[in-house]
Amino acid sequence: LQKAARNLKPVVPIKFHISSRTDSGVHALCNAAHLDIQRAPGKPAFQERELIRGLNHHLKSEPIRILSAYRVTSDFHARFSALSRTYIYRLLLGCARWSEVPVFERDLCWAPPGGYLDVPAMQDAARFLLGTHDFSTFRSLNSETPFQSPIRTIVQAEIQPSSGFLAHHYESRGLEFWELKFRSKSFLYRQVRRMVGALVAVGQGKLTPHQIKELLELRDARALPPHAMAPPAGLFLKCVEY
């Protein structure tokens, strides 16, 4: 983004402030950022549509596009002004092994080993994640951990059936797509992937729904069962609300 912006010949170097960072391999259906751009004396300020066209022209080789642009007040901040962020995680059921995943769905979902999950049990377990909790168990440790409160409020935690890309072409295979949706003002490092991994463990019978509540109460990142973190490919940042 900043390399593309340099081609717009700003007077002062541009820095983008992104609303939400994602792990490598995670997707964003929509993200938000803010920037300050100053043009040379005598040149009019960029109009929104002009800025969109200019940035996208210089982003041709990148898997990212500017969808819209708005002029905002000077105190707006893409990260700190956000009211909520919504993530979805896509699961594929019915594949006993990775080689059975449809080609056009690879790197866009997770097909847990075994091919079957007890979805009603997962839905029961997801209810324990709703509300305000200390989510220490459901975060990965990093350099920011000592300075960041583990208290977060989950206002939505749902598991619903979904459709796959071109799914009507392989209906005969009996594949099922499910989406796990989480909404909060903010999330901890890898929190969504760890919550999904724990819920899938419930679906596999490795944990009971009530054990999700017990894990929350332990408030210890080491308490999560080994390998209970969903891979990044199935995770999508869906939207950021202001």
In CATH, the architecture of the largest domain is 2-Layer Sandwich
User: What's the CATH class label of the largest domain?
Assistant: Alpha Beta
Mean pLDDT figure: 92
What is the number of independent domains?
Answer: 2
Number of strands: 8
Helix content: 10-25%
Task: Enumerate the strands of the largest sheet in spatial order, edge to edge or round the barrel.
Answer: 2-8-4-7-6-5
> Which radius of gyration do the C-alpha atoms yield?
21 Å
Order of helices and strands: HEEEHEHEEEHHE
Largest sheet: 6 strands, mixed
Keywords: Isomerase, tRNA processing
GO molecular function: RNA binding; tRNA pseudouridine(38-40) synthase activity
EC number: 5.4.99.12
Pfam families: PseudoU_synth_1
